[in-house]
């Protein structure tokens, strides 16, 4: 099967044909877990995470040696509507900051031993204001999906996708409302910290955008209401699925990108866990809709992949215990 796509339909077909987890590896990981020197279940959710990780990697005794964090950046036409507390030029300035190692996600990637890559997508060409027309045409959304698809490094064994794009919590709210219904106010939060007047404008923009593209779902929601960095995250998450690389989802924007995949192909996020729940009020609702229980709840509201990068420590810890601990037989410890 060709691993390329030129239309959203071809992308969807590739995603639908992507592998599922390895049942034999899951069983081998379960068997090993039962033999480790601890009371049954004593590592709580870490045990499930290690088994899940092994099932996707195809081994009952996995290791994590090459985690990758990818930050995608894009600019948004709706930013001109006054929906963010910061001006659009911050997107480009933060890309420079990522490249110089100065952002939170740089530090967290370093702490957890991940390589970090940054991809800026046509920053000088913001998407169209989605209240007036689709944010992207099909060629544009395909180019963004492909950027994400190709950004996943050969040999990566744990992936975090993050984003930078002033205005993108507005885009994420519009996607969530299009996919899951409800009122604009249910999905719209303060993002970088808009005041009450800004929140009113933002809620209005979300409502207008969803009304303008009434009835869109899945990848069409991504095209009409998303952004280039949002589509690129979706492309990277889909590629990881094809390569059986487990993914840690980040905050509201990343989860909205992922939700488009799940909406297009149910089960498309089985290789993903939610790294954290952010303070953006729509995030917990999106996680609920995609059936993901977040690993961390630290009141973070940064994006960039920062919450997911922090959660890499949990997955690495889970896998280290699972694969490195002695069994009762090896350690000569009496079983209960
Ligand atoms: C300095 C700075 C660094 C950031 N890093 C991530 N974001 C986050 O804030 C933006 C979304 O919020 P809104 O929709 O309100 O614009 C995204 O770029 C997101 O990644 C940042 C925002 C700022 C200002
Ligand atoms: O949930 C997020 O990822 C988020 C929230 C606010 C601003 N930027 C990102």
Automatic annotation (TrEMBL):
Keyword terms, alphabetized: Cobalamin biosynthesis, Glycosyltransferase, Transferase
Protein name: Nicotinate-nucleotide--dimethylbenzimidazole phosphoribosyltransferase
EC number: 2.4.2.21
Record function comment: Catalyzes the synthesis of alpha-ribazole-5'-phosphate from nicotinate mononucleotide (NAMN) and 5,6-dimethylbenzimidazole (DMB).
Pathway(s) annotated for this protein in UniProt: Nucleoside biosynthesis; alpha-ribazole biosynthesis; alpha-ribazole from 5,6-dimethylbenzimidazole: step 1/2
Swiss-Prot/TrEMBL GO biological process terms: cobalamin biosynthetic process
Residues of the active site: 304 (proton acceptor)
Gene Ontology molecular functions: nicotinate-nucleotide-dimethylbenzimidazole phosphoribosyltransferase activity
Catalytic activity: 5,6-dimethylbenzimidazole + nicotinate beta-D-ribonucleotide = alpha-ribazole 5'-phosphate + nicotinate + H(+)
Similarity annotation: Belongs to the CobT family.
């Amino acid at each position: 099967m060709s691993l390329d796509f030129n239309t959203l339909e071809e992308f969807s077909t590739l995603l639908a044909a992507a592998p599922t987890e390895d049942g034999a590896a899951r069983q081998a990981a379960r068997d090993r877990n039962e033999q480790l020197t601890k009371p049954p279940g004593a590592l709580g959710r870490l045990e499930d995470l290690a088994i899940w990780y092994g099932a996707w990697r195809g081994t009952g005794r996995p290791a994590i040696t090459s985690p990758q964090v990818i930050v995608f950046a894009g600019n948004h036409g709706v930013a001109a509507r006054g929906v963010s507390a910061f001006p659009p030029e911050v997107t480009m300035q933060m890309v420079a900051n990522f490249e110089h190692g100065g952002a939170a996600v740089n530090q967290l990637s370093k702490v957890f031993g991940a390589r970090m890559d940054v991809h800026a997508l046509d920053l000088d060409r913001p998407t169209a204001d989605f209240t007036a027309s689709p944010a992207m045409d099909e060629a544009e959304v395909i180019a963004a999906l492909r950027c994400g698809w190709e950004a996943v490094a050969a040999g990566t064994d744990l992936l975090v996708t993050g984003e930078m794009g002033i205005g993108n919590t507005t885009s994420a709210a519009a996607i969530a409302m299009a996919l899951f219904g409800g009122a604009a106010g249910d999905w719209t939060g303060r993002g970088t910290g808009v005041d009450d007047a800004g929140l009113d404008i933002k809620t209005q923009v979300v409502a207008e955008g969803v009304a303008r593209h009434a009835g869109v779902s899945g990848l069409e929601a991504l095209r009409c209401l998303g952004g280039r960095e949002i589509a690129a995250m979706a492309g990277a998450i889909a590629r990881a699925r094809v390569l059986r690389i487990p993914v840690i989802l980040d905050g509201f924007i990343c989860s909205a990108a992922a939700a488009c995949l799940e909406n297009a192909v149910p089960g498309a996020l089985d290789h993903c866990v939610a790294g954290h729940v952010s303070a953006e009020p729509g995030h917990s609702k999106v996680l609920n809709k995609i059936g993901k229980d977040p690993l961390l709840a630290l009141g973070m509201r940064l994006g960039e992949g920062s919450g997911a990068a922090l959660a890499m420590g949990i997955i690495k810890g889970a896998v280290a215990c699972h694969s490195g601990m002695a069994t009762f037989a090896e350690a000569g410890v009496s079983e209960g």
